[in-house]
Amino acid sequence: MPRKLRAVALGIGLGFASSAGAITAEELIAKNLEARGGVDRIRAIDAIRASGRMVYAQGDFSIELGYVNQVRAGAGCRTEVTLQGLTAITAWDGSTGWSVSPFQGRRDPERMSADDAKALEYCADLAGPLVDWQAKGHQVEYQGTEDVDGTEAHKLRVTLKNGNVQTIYFDPDYFLEIRHITQTTVRGVRQEQETDLGDYERVGGVYMPYSIESGPKGGAKTQKIEIEKIEIGVDIDPAQFAFPAR
User: Fold this and answer.
1) Interacting residues of 118 by C-beta distance below 8 A, sequence separation 6+
2) With a threshold of 0.70, does the pTM exceed it?
3) Long-range CB contacts for residues 155-162, cutoff 8 Å, separation at least 24
4) Which of 123, 170, 227, 237 keeps 20 to 30 A from 77, CA to CA?
5) CB 19 within 8 Å of CB 155
6) Does 24 map to a domain?
């Protein structure tokens, strides 16, 4: 059993039979949505605030920052990381992405380019791309299994409506997501980000990852987010997502 799913295995003991035989993309998605808690519970979540810490490590260098992510379905998203009184912000208001980057010496809000903002276009889709994927204009393709840290994981390619591609890997016993590889193109250069998901816990009847580790595909995971608290149904003012007025 992968470490990533220990909270499920040892806590609730969610019991799905392993699927060693053939499976379609639609069947895999159905199993994932059932494992997460059911599509009705997933759709019912209209706002989330997740807080904890972000650890950035590269070589012998390591730094810990405060982390808060807020999302309101259909309205936008905002992520803040804080260190020594400085707060970096990345936000999307439904049409525009913007950021504040004090750690790079830029304390005023700046609008993102279309390429940079493209990765944020679906951040306010709290249900995720697999819920109602056809109606959202995405495409899915089952691509068999592949080894993920010793687990023969199911592999699903999701081509989002905006052209970005996400490859999702599912644990074969529990059908929860254990890895994403996201492919984007920024200023003509293809970029691939690998993200490992784990330490699932149930919130509002839906399993959510409390550990998120990411880095370039095939490289070291330089960024780890450790969630300490997830609140659902919180009152989030959509004005927090809007580009600040001068």
Assistant:
1) 162, 163, 164, 184, 186
2) yes
3) 156/25, 156/28, 156/29, 158/129, 158/130, 158/133, 160/121, 160/122, 160/129, 161/136, 161/137, 162/118, 162/121, 162/122
4) 170
5) no
6) yes
* Local confidence band at 1 (pLDDT 50, 70, 90 cut-offs): very low
SS3 of residue 215 by DSSP: strand
Residue 199 CB-half CA count within 13 A: 10
Query: What's the pLDDT score for residue 75?
Result: 94
Q: Is residue 51 part of a domain?
A: yes
Pairwise CA distance, residues 162 & 189, whole Å: 16
The rounded distance, in Å, linking the Cα atoms of 57 and 62 is: 4
Record the tokens describing residue 66, joined without a space. Answer: 């405060």
CB 89 within 8 A of CB 106: no
> CA neighbours within 13 Å on the CB side: how many for 81?
18
In tens, the pLDDT along 20-66 reads 457 999 999 999 999 999 999 999 999 999 999 999 998 888 999 99
Residue 137 maps to which CATH number? 2.50.20.10
Contacts with 223 (C-beta within 8 Å, 6 or more apart), sequence order: 54, 55, 56, 213, 214, 215
Q: Two tokens at 193?
A: 């980000």
CA distance 142 to 158: 9
**Amino acid at the residue 164:** N
Give the list of residues 6+ apart from residue 4 with CB closer than 8 angstroms, or none. Answer: 171, 178, 196, 197, 198, 199, 200, 209, 211
| Total domains in the fold of the chain | 1
Residue 246 lies in a domain: no
